[in-house]
Amino acid sequence: MPELPEVENVIRSLVKKVSGKIIINIEIVTPNIIYNRMEFKDLVISKTIVTLLRRGKYIIIKLSEGNLLIHLRMTGKLLYNGEVNKHTHLRFKFLDGDYLIYNDVRKFGRVSYLNNDELEVYLNTKVGLEPGLMVFDEFKDKLMKKTGAIKKNLLDQTVIAGIGNIYADEILFASGIHPLFETKNLLESDLENLYNNIREILEEATIAGGSTIRDYVNGEGAAGAYQDTHKVYGKSGKECISCGCKLEKIKVAGRTSVFCPICQRIR
Ligand SMILES: [Zn+2]
User: Is 55:83 a contact under the CB 8 Å cutoff?
Assistant: First the structure.
């Protein structure tokens, strides 16, 4: 958390508000949040925000020169004119008096300044296929190079970018595939189901404003609604909506995974 739909909603809620704003000061409360903290202020102050973009779970704030690359990890939040509190680690002040704050209860998130070349190299090496843009053949090629459990490979950001624990469970349920199913044994029909469900579920969740499980909100402080549509995530012990059987949970790649033992039978 947050995953692709939540990050996309943070960007959509902020892009019109902050584009064109000139950063005149930055209050740094928690320097550890920033990767290149020594020169950060020198690099960022006086730059104008051009636009906001997303790659996988990353937020890219394009500046008049260079970029801010932000990963929210577990509990990071970017809030426009948001409430400053004990979890506020950064505050970007704009020339017109407005501001953007970075709050993070668990402090796992990171903010970096990268020039255009550094950003391109970083994204090309660390961030996999973009679900909304990938075509079936590149999805298949990239995924089938991987070994081990399909759930682990769906969570691997260098394969497909943007899927975390919530959407991996929902995608696997929709595709009728057990989380521990060996990726190399996937049939062509499994791959087609996965490809379609990845794109559809992430798109539907994005339109619904993302999922708010604990405290996710967008850049204006609004919660998402897709949690009401979840079929398996967080529902261990409840009845499967498809067959009525009890949903079970196991650990895969260190993450709790909920699945239906009938609809997602190991073949
Ligand atoms: Zn079922």
Answer: no
pLDDT at position 77: 96
Domain count, the chain: 2
Tell me, in angstroms, the distance from the centre of ligand 1 to residue 193's CA. Answer: 17
Gap from CA of 98 to ligand 1 centroid (Å) = 50
Ligand 1 center to 168 CA (angstroms): 17
- The pLDDT of residue 14 is 98
Report the 10 Å Cβ neighbour count for 18.
Answer: 21
Asked whether 130 and 159 are in contact (CB, 8 A), the reply is no
Ligand 1 geometric centre to CA of 228 (Å) = 18
Q: Which residues are part of the catalytic machinery?
A: 2-3, 57, 255
Check residue 214 and give its pLDDT. 85
Q: Tell me if 212 is assigned to some domain.
A: yes
Q: Report the CATH number that the domain containing residue 67 is assigned in CATH.
A: 3.20.190.10
Q: How confident is the model at residue 18 (pLDDT cuts 50, 70, 90)?
A: very high
Q: Specify if 267 maps to a domain.
A: no
- In tens, the pLDDT along 21-46 reads 999 999 999 999 999 888 999 999 99
Q: Which domain holds residue 152?
A: 136-259
Q: Is residue 266 one of the residues assigned to a domain? A: no
Domain boundary among 89, 108, 126: 126
